[in-house]
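note to self: dont lose this again. the chain is below, predicted strucutre after it. 196 aa total, dont forget to put it in the shared folder this time
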Amino acid sequence: ASTLTGNGATSILGGSTLNLGSTGANDVTIGTNGTTRFTVNSAASTLTGNGATSLIGGSTLNLGTTGANALTLATNGTTRLTVTSGGDVNVANNLQIGNTTTITSSRLFQAADGAVTTPAYSFGNDTNTGMYSIAADTLGFSAGGVERLRVTTTGAQVTGELKNGDKSYVSGTVSVNNVTYVALTHTDGTALSTQY
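---
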């Protein structure tokens, strides 16, 4: 059988280089408890695990390629993730965070709904200002955690002052029913009403 068997704990250590291999078109296998755990294919430079397989690094685990070659990760025989030699990362299917699709394979971004104080689209230094979904077909914009603009399938609603240049208007409403009406009150109390 050409078998080297150690008695008890056994180590094979190379001084600067340790080579384990086979001559000819033969695979190299690594086994425990009489069962092959890994096989290095002689033709394709492939390391195959038998059953559940883990690669664990002590402090760091490096997976990479030499030269201008891409690194790919695959499941079920299909490439799912590719890191190009230039550093770009390509995802073949949907990108999920917390088991929820965030970016589809069609490059559509699907954010969480968010809320008035925590909008889905916000800013690193201003997390309570941005855009969010109030409900189905209702888009909201908040500033400082307060709703300021609501857009629905029938129109838009402003909460707070509506400014035009140096003029400020409050209690502004706009309705469309064959005719457009604008009823605004100036901040000095002057009532304005214009029909278009």
